Amino acid sequence: MLRVATIPLISLRGEVSQNVERVEAWLALAAREQIDLAVFPETCLVGGVTLASLHRRELEALAEPLDGPALSAITDAVERTGVAAGVGLIERAQDGRLFNSYVICMPDGQRYCHRKLYAFEHRRIECGERFTVFDTVWGMRIGILIGADNYLIENVRMTALMGAALLVAPHRRDGVGRESEERIHAVSRKRGPGGKSGRRVANASANAEVGEQSDPTSCLRRWLPARAGDNGMFVAFSEGIDFNNESAQLPAEAAMILDPRGRILAQGTCDSRKIVSADLDSALIDQSIGRQWLMRRRPSLYGPLAHTSGQASIIADAPRVARAGSVALSFAVVGRDRLLR
C-alpha cells in the first residue's frame, strides 16, 4: 500500500528560496499524516512566472543544475521527514541546455528526473527525448509526464507499457502568448503529426494549455480519468498557480488522485490547507478492465501509429486465397487524414 498526496502549491514568482521553504513546510505536514510520496506541481520551485516573457539572462537566473541549492534543500527535507517529493524546476544540464524538468527525490537519496517532452514555455527550453519510469521500494513502478506530455494518448500508453502503475502528472496554470503558441506549433511539427493534422494537434494543445477562460485545465481534468481507465493505472495530478498573478483563478480541482478505473479517490483546491491524499492498493491494477485489455493488445496492427500523418496509409488486404464459391470483390487504400475526419 502506497499513500500518495498531491499538493497544489501556490508559488511565489521567481522566489526560488521561498518556494523551497513552502515545499519543506508541506513535507513536514505530510510526515505527520504518514504520507509516502508528495506530488507538487510543474516548475513549482521557480513559481508561476510566464517564462516566455523572460529574457535569456532572467531565465538563466532561474535555472539550476540537479545538484544545485534548491534540489539539495529538497533532498535534505525528504531525508529529514522520510516523505518522497516530486518537484518541478528549470534544469540547467551539464552542457548548458535548459529543460523543464521534474524530479522525484526519494528518502534513500535516489533522484529520478523527467525532462518535459513537449516544452514550449520558452524558445531556449528544449524538449526531453525519453520516457521516465522507475521502480520504488513500495513495489510500485512510477512514471512521470509533465503538463502537455499528458495531452497525447500515446505518451501515457507508452508509460503504462513500460510498467508504470502510478503516473505522476504535475501541471501548471499559465497564459500562452503568441510566442508560446508558435513554440507549440514548432514542437508539434517536430515531435508529432505534421501537415494539416499536425496543425490541428498543435491548436488542440494550445487550447488545452490555455483552456477556457474560466478554467484553463478543464480539458486535462476530463482526459486524465480516461487515461487512468484506459491503461489501468493510478494518476496523481497536481496544479500550480502564481501567487503574484492577480487575474489567476483558483482551479475547481487543483489536486486529483485517480484509481485504475478512472474514479476520483481524492481531490482538492489550491485554497485548501488540507493534504489531498489516498492509499493506493496495487491489487486494483490487475482487476481493472483497462489493464486486462492492455495485455490483449495486437502490436502488429499498430504500425501506422509510428508514422507521420499524411505519409502512412492503412491497407485492408484482400484474402490471398479465396474460399470455394466466394469472390474477392475489392480492397481499399484509405489515408489516415480521411479516418480522422
From TrEMBL:
What residue range is the signal peptide?
Answer: none
Keyword Hydrolase attributed:
yes
For whether the record's keyword set contains Hydrolase, the answer is yes
Q: Where does the record place the CN hydrolase domain? A: 2-282
Q: Where is this region: Disordered?
A: 178-212
Q: Which domain of life is it from?
A: Bacteria
Pfam families, alphabetized? CN_hydrolase
Alphabetized PROSITE patterns for the sequence: CN_HYDROLASE
Which UniProt keywords are given for this protein, alphabetically ordered?
A: Hydrolase
Composition-biased stretches (Basic residues): 186-199
TM ranges: none
* Annotated InterPro entries: Aliph_Amidase/BUP (IPR050345), C-N_Hydrolase (IPR003010), C-N_Hydrolase_sf (IPR036526)
Q: Please name the GO terms that the record assigns under molecular function.
A: hydrolase activity
What is the name attached to this protein's record? Answer: Carbon-nitrogen hydrolase
